[in-house]
Input
Amino acid sequence: MRKFISNISKHVIVTQDLAGYSYFENFLISTVSTILLVRFYLHLANYPQIGVGGLHIAHMLWGGPILMVALILTLLFLDRWIRAFAAVLGGIGFGFFIDELGKFITSDNNYFFQPTIALLYVIFIMLYLLLLFLKKYMHVTSSEYLSNAIDIFRDGITNGMSPQSREQIIEYLKKSGTQMTLMTLSTVMSIKLFDKTRDFSPLDKLKKQYFKYLHKTVNSTVFQKIVIFSIALKALITGVVVITIILAITGVWIDISMLSTDIEVNFKSLGLTISTVISGTLALAGLVSYPISKKRAFLFFRYYLLFSIFIVQFFLFWANQFDALTGLFFDILALQTVNIILKESKNE
Output
């Protein structure tokens, strides 16, 4: 895959902004936050309509001007904090826009179209996977390291430089492996320093606090026991369900027709049932493996959580809308916990 991307880059020459992944991340965070806040406000305000005389100004229209301002800022200014600000602003504009997806995929312009939240979830999962894909397969060349060092250096000339920015410049110059390293180090060291970064970084600060508490939470013994217990409970429930279905199909216990009474079978319910059973089976495989190999057990637990996040949650958001957020948040925390346990077992 990396070779394929490398071949493309030979024909299409672009220079990566190594801070761009953080901007992209902030874009996604502000988009999701905007959708949640808009939906929450509309729910509290009983879905008011802005307009007179039969006119209705959809909140999607506010997204356009916000996106336009974000684009204009990146076109007119070189400052890195402007790019960071534009990423957040663009995420807000995109959030206003994409929130009304239901209106534009239904013939009756139905904002409350139930699968909308599930479709939004898929869009954000795909964007996040794109971010991970680019991080993994986009090789950073020596010229790109040099270009990024110069970009931070240029920004420092105008706005001053934080100690972190200075260290980053030196790191990038060393990785570039060019003669410019020695020539520019003395200049870098002479730029006026200030104690605190002037970057537009409210989201970065929030992310740092989030990861600080996340690390503290997932490393706690109590939380790790809660995660293992919840996965084990899921596995046991799945085992009972699977055994019940087998007994029903074979007619050993109950008539299978009794299981389908008053149950509406459609894509949503079928998908949710099948995906839940599959994820539960992975959890069950981990539980069975636990006495034999803890490492193998936690690998199965990891597969279970990944399947739950990427597949099961889609159907849960379809069925339960935003009520599925709690389960998603716990799955993400549990996945972080399992990853830490696997990393520790690898180092042992």
